[in-house]
Amino acid sequence: MKIGLTILLLMGMSLLVRAGIDLQGYTIFTVPTSINKDSTPAYFTISVNKKFAIKIRGNPTTGYQVFLANDDKVTQSNIVKALNLTDKGTSKDYVTDPHPEHMMGVPGNYYFTFLAEQVGQVKLKFENKRAWDTSDSTSLEVTINVVAGDL
What we know:
The chain is mainly β.
């Protein structure tokens, strides 16, 4: 599956210019709602050596972005490997919803991509926050269970 071109400008800075996100061969897990104070934890299972993406609603034009808050713990676990994080911990891949040309403030989806490297369980903690304001954030916990063999 190839997801189309997205250009997003916020405060004069280009956050993302990607000529499509190639998710061919990925299992896509969609978080049922955007991250808010009432977010319910999610649980997904994937086979070892498979690639997967966590799809999360968001709208960076509001100043809020979705971050993988515990990327250091995820890396140390060696259970999954993050494939597309920026140095600040957000996804390099954000796609706005279809919209009329020149329409501003359109929400979309972040795609956080991972490789399941070994059998085990890991918790991914995603936060929706402004990078400069750590006092105002909401979070969502996603548990990934990596199993041997095919599902």
